[in-house]
Amino acid sequence: MGLEIRVFDLANRLYDDETEPEEIEEIKERFDQLNEFLRSRGLPEHIEPEKLPDNLIYRGELTGFHYSSTHFLRRAYAYQQLGLPLIPFTNKSDDAKRLPHL
Q: What gap in Å lies between CA 23 and CA 39, rounded to an integer?
């Protein structure tokens, strides 16, 4: 199982001449469904950009994450929410020694 995270998906597809109109409609429909869900929970809608920012910095292409890597994403999000600095680590045993509270 894998986890795919994308940013500017709609803008990238609109920029790509090979994208079929049906694909664009499918992506827009997914965001419509997401917004319906968010509204039902009293949350603000997501506004998906249709244009790439002028100051976008290309950082290379990552092909994906294995599902077992999801906990690293959760940890980074939790640290960000708590205002803690992200601490790089080399492996799980090293991480456990330096960060026993995790």
A: 24
Separation of alpha carbons 9 and 48, rounded Å: 8
Cα–Cα distance measured from residue 17 to residue 24, given in angstroms and rounded to the nearest whole number: 12
Amino acid at 15: Y
Of the CA atoms within 13 Å of residue 23, those in its CB half-sphere come to 12
In single-letter form, the type of residue at position 23 comes to: E
Tell me how crowded residue 10 is: count the other CB atoms within 10 A of its CB: 19
Q: Which of 50, 3, 5 is nearest to 24 (CA)?
A: 50
* Residues 73, 1: Cα–Cα separation, whole Å: 16
Whole-model pTM: value is 0.56
Query: Which of the two residues, 50 and 86, has the higher pLDDT score?
Result: 50
Domain ranges of the chain: 1-63, 67-102
